[in-house]
Amino acid sequence: MNGTKKYFTQDFIKFFKELESNNNKEWFNKNKPNYEEFVDEPFNLFVKRLLEILCKLDGTIRINASEAIFRLNRDLRFSKDKSPYKVFKSALISSKGRRHKAEPGFYLEIGATDIKISGGCFKLTPKQMKHIGNNMHLVNPIISKQTFVSYCGELRKTKSSLTFETLLSSELVSSDELDILILTHWQIMLPVVNIFKEILKQEKQ
């Protein structure tokens, strides 16, 4: 997991701070060159780097960066908030990519304030939730360990998700060891993610 390359500068944070106050197409179009140079291109390279390492840890992950990274444009169809853009860049890394949120995997979100590092199941059916709930004894010994809790947090459960989440300061975005930091969290989560995969495979049988 060696690597000391800096992917981002503080201009990444600056862009999103300004976008939060100017979330409109006119401002975005005017500042699109900054978005492409300081946000989009480095984020794509960063996710590509994360995928290169993760595929060595989990051979089922063979997607490319474009299959993991979400668009910056918000889906406004069912939202009262008509702001056109998200104020963060994000990616969902799993064996099936961002379009298949039921597949256990890893999520990264970087905005003006926080770096969100998550792992688990992000959108399950009620049947899948019940099946994993009936098999939590398989992961409880792992997720109760102090090392796991200190890195990954406690289990966060909604009606359709089971995830672990850590928030770090976005000031770390310009660290030349950001990839190592994120991958360390994900590597600790990996055994749980793999168990979730196996449980869901059994549910389909």
Automatic annotation (TrEMBL):
<protein>
    <submittedName>
        <fullName>DUF2461 domain-containing protein</fullName>
    </submittedName>
</protein>
<dbReference type="Pfam" id="PF09365">
    <property type="entry name" value="DUF2461"/>
</dbReference>
<dbReference type="InterPro" id="IPR012808">
    <property type="entry name" value="CHP02453"/>
</dbReference>
